[in-house]
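Note to self: keep these together.
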Amino acid sequence: MIRRLSLAASLFLTISAATAVAQNTPKPKRINKAIDLLSQGQPIWYLGGEGGVHGDFDQGKELAQTWADFIVYDFENRQFDVARLADFMRGLVAGGPTRSGHRTPTVIVTLPTDGINEAVMRANAWMIKQVLNTGVQGVELCHAQDPGAVKAFVEAVRFPYMKLGVNEGLDEGYRGAHGSPMAGPIWGLTPLEYAQKADVWPLNPNGELILGLKIEDKRGLAKLDQILSVPGIAFVEGGGKDMAYAYGYPENRDNPRPAELQAARDKTFAAAKRHKLYFLDGMFPNDVIAKLKEGVMLGSGNEEAAQMGRKFMKRPEPW
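Structure:
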């Protein structure tokens, strides 16, 4: 009898604790944590840095509680292993939700193909389909050099019945239907619910996918305004080391930053502002407040910089 009472009491305490946690867990407005925060005017920080994350299920489970708002998963320079990415996404779900109540942190994948021209982008659009079908919430195109490539990039992400922007810089999307049963469960949705929400934000205010561009060479800079005029893009960044390589600085790109690299960064940032796009830049403890005052909204820094920035922006906890 005493043993039964003890087991019953233990079960009651376990259920009570789980109920308390559930009641105290925030209820986010959006699936995509990055979009949720940006739409509130809150800057966001990512984990990944140079080389990005390239983890499996176990690392996904571990990173489900990351300090970062989003994770950059690297296919630009690492092997294109979609099965590994799918395992990583399942690990994030298994280790979630985040402290902010989101099912997972946002995951943005950098593609191995470059935005050289429209033909190259359409030939490699299969990469986008496979990446999105794992349930990631964002994709970034590296070396965006041509507006036709960016147009093809956006169209490859979208289902054909998503009409915002069509005949206004975009043609119909051509993403197929059969990925929804794979991606939907990662978002906690049915295939139909996923298909209704998997569109590009902020072009579609209700969309839950975020797209970015890297302007990281002279070809991209030469067509900057044309590239950033393509609807469907949310953020842009200036390229860092690749831009330094483009200008002949394989080693020295900082301390001090060469004038050409600073000018390229400033030109990209100014264009982002003109086109009402968010700008991604390094934000570290020594400059995070200045960068926030400048208008940078996505940061590549570190946890210390993120905590400083969140406090400066009076961001509500939990983070």
